Amino acid sequence: MPHVIVKLWPGKSEQQKQKLADGVTEVVMASLGYGEESVSVSLEEVAPRDWTGKAFKPDIINGPGKLYKKPGYKPL
Q: Which of 26, 29, 34, 70 could be stapled to 38 by a disulfide with Cβ–Cβ 3.0 to 4.6 Å?
């Protein structure tokens, strides 16, 4: 039962967020062979001023062995 958490800056419309969740769901289904009923996706908005402390450090820097796609930016 995959559950995907996406952290992103605020400011995207509900339509954009739903499109992202739908796309993530499709990729999980195609990549892992799960049915739609098994996949859940949540979006967590993190303010730019909080990004380093709430996303970059805990999830990217301090998440050894969990990060499969590294970003191409440096923290603020």
A: 34
Residue 75 burial (CB count, 10 A): 12
- The full set of domains in the chain, from first to last, is 3-61 (3.30.429.10)
Catalytic residue status for 75 = no
Q: Cα(56)–Cα(35) distance, rounded to whole angstroms?
A: 31
pLDDT at 40 over 90: yes
Question: Choosing from 2, 48, 64, 75, which is the catalytic residue?
Answer: 2
| pTM of the predicted structure, to 2 decimals | 0.89
Closest CA to 69 of 29, 17, 59: 59
**What residues contact residue 20 under an 8 Å CB cut-off, 6+ apart?**
6, 12, 41, 43
